[in-house]
Amino acid sequence: MTIPTTMRALEQTSLKGPQDMRLVSDAAVPTPGAGEVLIRVEVAGVNFADVSKAHGLFGDGPQPPYVAGFEAVGEIVAVGEEVNIPTVGARVVGVGEGAFAEYLLLPAAGAVPVPDDWTAAQALGMVVNWPTALAALKPLGRIAAGETVLIHAAAGATGQAAVVMAKHYGAVVIGTASAGKHETVRALGADYVVDSDADDLAEQVLGLTTGIGADLVLETAGGAAFAASLQAARRVLGRVVVFGLAGGEATVSNGDLVYKHQIQLIGLNIGVLIQSAPEVFGALMGEMMRLIASGVLVPSEPTVYALADGASALTDLETRKTVGKLALRP
Ligand SMILES: NC(=O)c1ccc[n+]([C@@H]2O[C@H](COP(=O)([O-])OP(=O)(O)OC[C@H]3O[C@@H](n4cnc5c(N)ncnc54)[C@H](OP(=O)(O)O)[C@@H]3O)[C@@H](O)[C@H]2O)c1
After folding, report:
1. What is the pLDDT of residues 62-92, one digit of tens each?
2. Which ligand 1 atom minimizes the distance to the CA of 324?
3. Which of 320, 314, 14 is nearest to 156 (CA)?
């Protein structure tokens, strides 16, 4: 197969937001270095982090101009030195910078085979949303059967997986979502759905838990909802796993933790977890594969946009119009 030298790609040209993304047709096709594989992108995953990066709000994020996107599925068309597996021809999903393009480099060690009978789009989620949701629930959140878990953005890509897995582990699930998305969350098996914009979010959760609070909170809402999440967590034994800040930064002081919110506060970044605790990640992926094999986690059906419509996809995600996973097809 002949690999071209240039390709179409979506370039972020400012830090003012996704509207400043433009389609270019002369981006350089990268060459795999040692330990890397080059895939021909079939479909790229859209993540909330892409929105954060477009606004310059992602810690250590790229400076414009940069090819956006970081998650994709595709066929391996070339491998670098020291790569024995996976081989050319394999279909893999992985994470690498510059996924909104026709070709993408992935670290060979992080390229996960697409299950045989899954489409490319269905495999999106396997390396970002699902492991993140599972990490928040299990190794970090220590979910146990009978416990109550509050899951923000429960109709979103990460939240949907979290709802399904939390129910599988025997938890009582309270999901939050915008008004038009409640039915989606209920259909996934959530026991209760609370409006994510509700001013009395904490009071509602306390009401649903006989005043005790949620044993575990998956906190991605940020902004004003962050304080509500802390308020809604069970005193002393309750865990709040913080892994997103869609509504913006929020603070908690040492005084708050001593006098107001006596809860267990845990930070999660899946990239750092992979780097700093590979044994935890390995166990996590093993568990995820078991959940897939047993039919608990089923392939998702992302909403697919054309690559040229990437800015619209990111804007829809940012303005809370979307349900489930979004994808771009180059
Ligand atoms: N730390 C990590 O490693 C990691 C990895 C993956 C994802 N995440 C985080 O997990 C969260 C979900 O990511 P995702 O890619 O799956 O996105 P998503 O959940 O599909 O979409 C984001 C959702 O967040 C909710 N939301 C709440 N407050 C919002 C606000 N002020 N602005 C926009 N949306 C708001 C919206 O749902 P409603 O309108 O229904 O409330 C929105 O649909 C994000 O915060 C993301 O950064 C973190």
Report:
1. 999 999 999 999 999 999 999 999 999 999 9
2. 20
3. 320
Q: Is 183 left (phi over 0), alpha (psi -120 to 50) or beta?
A: alpha
Does the CB atom of residue 300 touch ligand 1 within 6 A? no
Residue identifier of the C-alpha nearest atom 12 of ligand 1: 158
Q: What is the pLDDT of residues 4-30, one digit of tens each?
A: 999 999 999 999 999 999 999 999 999
Which phi and psi angles does 228 have, rounded to 5°?
A: -65, -40
Strand 21-28 relative to strand 6-12: parallel, antiparallel, unpaired?
A: antiparallel
Does the C-beta of 270 come closer than 6 Å to ligand 1? yes
Residue of 57, 160, 196, 220 with the most ligand 1 atoms within 8 Å of its CB, for mutation: 220
User: Which domains does the chain possess?
Assistant: 6-124+300-329 (3.90.180.10), 129-271 (3.40.50.720)
